[in-house]
Amino acid sequence: MENARILGSSSWRIYFRVVLPISRAAIIAGVSLVILEVLNDYGVVSYYGIQTFTTAIFQTWFGMGDLQSAVKLSGTLMVIVLGILVLERIARGRRQFSFTTTKVKLLQPVKLEGPKKWYAFSFCMFIFSIGFIIPVIQLVYWATMTYEQFFSQDFWQLIWNSVSVAFIASTIIVIMAVVISNFARLNRGMLAKTFPKITILGYSIPGAVIAVGVVTLFTALDRQLFGFYEWLGLEPTLLISTSLFMLVFAYVIRYLAVGYNSIESGFDRIGTNFTEASRMLGMSVTKSFFKVDMKLIRGAIFGGFILAFIDIMKELPLTLILRPFNFDTLATKAYQYAVDEMIQQAAIPSIFIILVSGIAIYVFHHVLEKE
Amino acid sequence: MFVHIRNLAFKYPNSKDNTINDFNLTIDQGEIISILGESGSGKSTILRLIAGLEMPTNGNIMVGDHCMCSNSSFTQPEKRGVGMVFQDYALFPHMTVEDNIKFGLQKWSRKDKKNRVGEVLELVNLEDYRKRYPFELSGGQQQRVALARALAPKPKLLLFDEPFSNLDADLQIRIREELRRIIKSTGVTSIFVTHDQDDSQALADRIVVLREGEVAQVGTAQEILGTDCNFADRMPVKPRVLSRV
Prior knowledge:
The structure holds 2 protein chains of 2 kinds.
Chain A: H1 2-6, H2 11-40, H3 43-47, H4 53-63, H5 67-92, H6 114-145, H7 153-186, H8 190-201, H9 207-231, H10 244-270, H11 273-280, H12 285-296, H13 298-313, H14 317-322, H15 330-339, H16 347-370
Chain B: E1 3-10, E2 20-27, E3 32-37, H1 43-51, E4 58-63, E5 66-69, E6 82-85, H2 97-102, H3 110-123, H4 139-151, E7 157-161, H5 169-186, E8 189-194, H6 197-203, E9 206-211, E10 214-219, H7 221-227, H8 229-234, H9 239-244
Parallel strand pairs in B: 3-8, 3-9, 6-7, 7-8
Antiparallel strand pairs in B: 1-2, 1-4, 4-5, 9-10
Helix pairs in contact in B: 3-4
């Protein structure tokens, strides 16, 4: 960019001729991410009564009890998702821009003066208001109307459910992500290359599809295990597929990518030098990991944990389908209130999702700064 | 012969040609060898093969009486008893100088560890820096800690990867004199890799010139200087250095 400037282009020209083309890959990646998120969404579309694939999967399954059709719908949705992923690849093409010099200098921020300053400010403020401030004020207002429920024991149970499930799932995610990325980092070959790609795939798959897949898998597994349950002296029922285990399993599939990306970038930063140095000093790979690598990427591990934690806290479609009977999280409760025309009641659980996530982010930054 | 390398070949999975082609070398105990080559000649790869950080496609490496790798066996780097000083030192940033040095002494008793740390720090003249963290040290000091750390477990063989590339020129000259003194005083067999002819001359008993993964020449600095006019042209002969070789 600075190059272009020195070559004498005006700011506008620079923007359209240099900045946009260079950013193309990033923009396409951003757009496809949004598309995938929208395909995944269930809460908003069902509240406003819009028919989407996700809501259709829900209806055929819960409304009509038709798992077969739900599987078919999921299959179709998966084809679309894969189509988008392929399109993204093609659109990016060979132009996976990298920098010819290794050190990318950060742009010098330009200090805006006069009216320009206010245009920029109000544009950002506008988006921030619509996206965050106004909804939160509305929530707080509603919350003041329904604050009594805060004192009920059910509500504390909700928070406990949400936090504990998110905590367990994020812990498993982080452990798996560390193992996979460490393996991919220290090995060459097909397996080390394909593993991370499969790991990340889960994040592109809509929650409803994962849910359908996981339920189908676990019911089949339960059927296989009937004999074993009987042998243990238990009643042959659907043991695993009605347990929390299934929900946690699905969370891990869907959000493994979140933890993985954070941890992988942590490993990228430290490289393999320290590991090699440790091995030359007589430590095995595993010992090196605990004594050296893990300590150096603590921040990244923690960051991955927090990101996965927040994502799981607010997850809806998976939770709605896979939760055990009578198990509610903040997100499912807020959703139920909302569809039952008790939108004010939904405010308190919603605020608590924001609150818990906010605390998590605060702790995260606090820890990072200390590092 | 203390170190014996025969028919060593290596190829990175995604490259067409061999990075190392039929590399042969024997080294006497206590000898200092320099592998001299341009970047891309495969010199660092040879070091990594000896260290066990890469697996050769062919050939074998013997150190002492132990087979480090052959076509049928491969000893993991942590079991080889080979020390290495990395190009960027790779000192563990979350440990003090003392802990960095102790890292390779995990099986030693507490008292032995303490004594050994004292010994090697004295050797590199850094007794007062025990409790410092690597980022509190200058480049030259960091390098000496890296050397102390590699020497501490008493390796049979010590490897240096471009040991001077991160140092200022005047520091470089001072440190390589000292480095030779330290290595010779411990009697450890050493191999170091460099692209700098001055370094090779000042440090090594023998020089191996590497070109495109193959040994182009082996000999003392004098022999190499005598036969290769390129070297003589580019490098005025420094009697002070030559007299020592």
